[in-house]
Amino acid sequence: MKQMNKEVQRRFDVLVIGGGPAGMAAAARAAECGARVGIVDDNFRLGGQIWRGEPDDGQKTDASRWAERVRASGVTALCGLRVVHQPESGVLLAENLDGFCELTYEKLVLVTGARERFLPFPGWTLPNVMGAGGLQAMVKCGLPIRGKRVVVAGTGPLLLAVAAYLRKHGAEIPVICEQASWRDLAGFGLALFRWPGKILQGLQLKRNLAGVPFAANSWPLAAQGRQTLESMTISHAGKAENIPCDYLACGFHLVPNIELPSLLGCAVANGCVQVDDFQRTTVPHVFCAGEPTGIGGVELSLIEGQIAGLAAAGHASEAQALLDERRKALRFARLLDHTFRLRSELRSLPSSETMVCRCEDVSYSHLLQHSSWRAAKLHTRCGMGPCQGRVCGPATQFLFKWNPDSVRPPVFPVRVETLAAMASQLQPQHSEVTGGQ
Amino acid sequence: MSNATYDVVVVGAGIVGAACADELVRRGLRVAVVDRDVIGSGATAAGMGHIVVMDDSDSQFALTRYSQQLWQELRPELPDDVEYEQCGTIWVATDEEEMIEVRRKRDYYGQRGVATEVLDAQSLQAMEPNLRLGMAGGLLVPEDGVLYPPCAARFLMERAQQRGAKLHLDSPVAQIGMGQVRLTDGTEISAGIIVNAAGAWAADLTPGLEIKKRKGHLVITDRYPRFLRHQLVELGYLKSAHSVSGDSVAFNVQPRRTGQILIGSSRQYGAEHKEVDNAMLVRMLQRAQEYMPGLAQMSTVRTWTGFRAATPDKLPLIGPSTADTTGDKSIYLATGHEGLGITTSLATARLLADQITGTKSDIPVEPYLPARSAKEYAHA
Amino acid sequence: MHSQVTVRVNGAPVVVPSGTTIAVAMVLVGQPCRTSVSGEPRGPLCGMGICFECRVVIGGIPHCRSCQVLCEQGMEVTTEK
User: Fold this and answer.
1) What is the model's pLDDT at position A56?
2) CB of B111 within 8 Å of any CB in chain C?
3) Which domains, and CATH codes, for chain A?
4) Does residue B380 surpass a pLDDT of 50?
5) How far apart are CA A124 and CA A147, in angstroms?
6) C16/A142 touch (CB, cutoff 8 Å), yes or no
7) What is the pLDDT of residue A423?
8) Centroid of chain to Cα A271
């Protein structure tokens, strides 16, 4: 394992970290302006989460159109590569299964997307309990789902999209459990009239999901099974119902991936990276777009990604036209936040033995003894595992109102040799102290 | 909490402060502990938790040996999450010059009743197969051990609380002196004696203290059980810890009970910020890879830094403070432990409590008295 | 494009279409990817490489996130203890 093949281009005018919709839009636009652009993603193909494996039926979609623009504009795609640290300004350290490399940039566009929020409840650690996007990703990577019973639960528009996808591939969906109230959902539905495109999506979803029971004010209570999931207990209309099933697709909306922006020093507020109209962060030459600036869905990601790409390539004036679209899409983002906010009942889901930190097996009752994330981390190891708090962090923030710690390198687990190989011309960050001190 | 009065208020709920509180309540004193953050949030959170006898000087040996024995006595009462393991230390020698040092150490320890075993190249390889080939040998010190310091500090603090000590966390201290501890929120706590156990920040509370921050880096890997059995330290570590200036790294690795490998160590003066210093990290990891090539492939999960409290003569300050010129006799010091805070916390607590209660100590206290700085510092 | 691949999971051969991830292969044969610190069986959760629940041993190398690894002919996969 050594430094990766130097033939691969690694110096870029614009470096885009994240290969989802925002990243593809940013990369394509920047490259179309003539910039030398690289796009980096951990997955083995571009598309991120929402466009994973698209298109799967040969049809022209947003995903395929942007993928084509990325290809045609000469963007260098570096897949299967993870950014882990910044050795010095203008350089990122990245690693893949075979080796590592340093990526040099003039402008950086961080489009690291979002991950699902998981909340603990009894039995949630059973195999075949997965995220909603998680199960969808597994199906896209070859998991057969035809004839399987899948309970879909949690919150957010992702639930419907996932349920529709699973059904299309032959899954049987006993129920979709959405914790939001009927009232909030109705408000969401009415508000969608502001976004005609979404109504069409909504109608399509409605068609795809015809006959699938949908329950609002509903959430998971417990998962049961010996070695794998066998049934779910859900709360529905104030009563507990038990449903035999093969899989649970459960996620509670999305959490922005702000680890890399935080490491680089970008200002963050309410868990989102702060940006100006042109997606500039508080760090010079660093842009951020899409979900890390606030959960807003694919449309907003595409708009913001384009703005960032154009601005990073020095063509901010061309982004002017997009600012209006973004303003409209931002209203949708705020609506999402409001409609799918978590209800307090979800705080009482875990029992005392329920594991909250899955990497280190720290139970709910164990965590109750501590009054801050930092104390819990130090004394129970919660958050010290390889997921680096990505799963238990948002859960404990919701359960206990804890605030997260500052981010330290590596932002992703990385081999010792990769860290040890950071550019050797680095100097210590203070002057040498002479003797006699 | 206003106007509460105690016999002793300890400032700092790290392992030293916790040990002092535990010992003082055991002797029947009314104790309060104040910390600006959570239990064990300073060097206690950052350090390796290595319980080790050191022979830098006779005084250092006396303190570390005494304290190690106290840890061994305490061991049966330690809960599981303290993760105490008597895994032993191996001081690793890369050449014949270092083997001379190995034998010197063996003789020194042998004369003082500390069990050791000299390892030749083959037995070293047999004991630690993941050390690279070509080592000259080493010295095994089987009575050394490791533990997880934040939980050890919490155990000691909770034991003190069970006996009546009061703990105030998230309570930064603005000023101490004349029998008063004043918090930044204005609260005042009266005490006959105030113990400054604030570690790397002790000089903030007692101006004039000769304590400097000595920054260190650590890295922890994912789980690789059976890769490492003992704490391994290069003999060059002593050169690194010896020096009173400059930056240095030394090979120093520890097997944690979880199977994770803790990788250290580095020392820097003059670095006041807690961010990871990439140049130091690179040097430290390269050094570690030189000794154990198998580390290269391991997944690292976290890196962090911490600040040791360093004194000019590398011995801690335990006893009445002499920094004040106004005649204030209420301040005692329990700080300046550099890289030996975990090891010597229990002995520090004993020596401090002895002085406060006028009891004769089990070992001579003179080398650790703050008053010693009136004389010239002796370099071992 | 529709070729098949055989991997071995805990010693037993598993045939999957190419393009399938190791995580999917584990779920297919009902084997947990790993055993947690307290002994619980665990499988993939997030499907996107951030939860680390899907870790397996591949060819003797531990801590491989199986949801990020495509099945390749002859891979030897075992549940990570």
Assistant:
1) 61
2) no
3) 9-114+255-339 (3.50.50.60), 118-252 (3.50.50.60), 350-400 (no CATH)
4) no
5) 23
6) yes
7) 75
8) 13
Query: What's the sign of the alpha-carbon dihedral B284, B286, B290, B292?
Result: positive
Express each pLDDT in A338-376 by its tens digit: 999 999 999 999 999 999 999 999 999 999 999 999 999
Same domain, B329 and B349: yes
ipTM of the complex: 0.97
Q: Does B222 touch chain C (CB under 8 A)?
A: yes
Rounded Cα distance between B133 and B94, Å, is: 10
Q: What is the CA radius of gyration of chain A?
A: 22
pLDDT of residue A429: 45
Residue type for A11, please? Answer: R
Largest CA distance in chain A: 82
Identify residues of A whose CB sits under 8 angstroms from chain C CBs.
42-44, 49, 80, 97, 115-116, 118, 125-131, 133-138, 141-144, 227-228, 355, 358-361, 385-387, 390-391, 413
- Which of C36, C38, C63 is best to mutate for the B interface (most B CBs within 10 A)? C63
A425 touches chain B (CB under 8 A): no
Confidence (pTM):
0.93
> Quick check: A279 pLDDT over 60?
yes
Instruction: Give the CA distances from residue A430 to residues A434, B219, B241, B268, B277, in Å, rounded to whole numbers and listed in that order.
Output: 12, 21, 19, 9, 10
The pair of structure tokens assigned to A145 is: 């789902």
List the end-to-end C-alpha distance of chain B, in Å, as a whole number.
46
10 Å CB burial of residue C2 (0-12, 13-18, 19+) is exposed
CATH number at B120 reads 3.30.9.10
Of B295, B310, B325, which residue sits at a domain end?
Answer: B310
Predicted pLDDT of residue A9: 56
Tell me which chain A residue has its CA closest to the CA of residue C64. Answer: A97
Tally of CB atoms within 10 A around A244: 13
Encode pLDDT of B38-51 as tens digits: 999 999 999 999 99
Statement to judge: residues B306 and B322 lie in one domain: no
C7 Cβ under 8 Å from any chain A Cβ: no
Residue B1, pLDDT > 60, answer no
Q: Is the CB of B258 inside 8 Å of chain C's CB atoms?
A: yes
Do B233 and B130 have their domain in common?
Answer: yes
Domain C4-79 indexed as CATH 3.10.20.440: yes
Does B299 lie at the interface with C, CB-CB under 8 angstroms? yes
Beta bridge pairs of residue B292: none
Q: Which chains touch C (3 or more CB pairs under 8 A)?
A: A, B
The rounded radius of gyration (Å) of the Cα atoms in chain C is: 12
Partner residue opposite A379 with nearest CB, options B150, B263, B289: B150
pLDDT in tens, A124-165: 999 999 999 999 999 999 999 999 999 999 999 999 999 999
Our count of domains for chain B comes to 2
CB pair distance less than 8 Å for C37 and B258: yes
Q: Which residue has the tokens 């084997």?
A: C31
Q: What span, in angstroms and rounded, lies between the C-alpha atoms of C67 and C55? A: 8
Comparing C22 with A201, the larger pLDDT belongs to C22
Residue at B79 is within a domain: no
Cβ atoms of A14 and A106 closer than 8 Å: yes
- Find out whether A87 and A93 touch, Cβ atoms under 8 Å: yes
Of B13, B49, B48, B52, the residue nearest B31 (C-alpha): B13
Cβ–Cβ < 8 Å for A152, C81: no
Length of chain B: 380
Q: What is the largest CA-CA distance in chain C?
A: 42
Q: What is the pLDDT of residue A205?
A: 76
Cα first-last separation, chain A? 43
**Of the candidates C19, C40, C45, which has its C-beta nearest A134's C-beta?**
C45
| Structural domain harbouring B16 | 4-46+149-210+313-374
Measured distance CA(B213)–CA(B202) in Å, rounded: 10
- Among the partner-chain residues B151, B244, B289, the one whose CB lies closest to the CB of A416 is B289
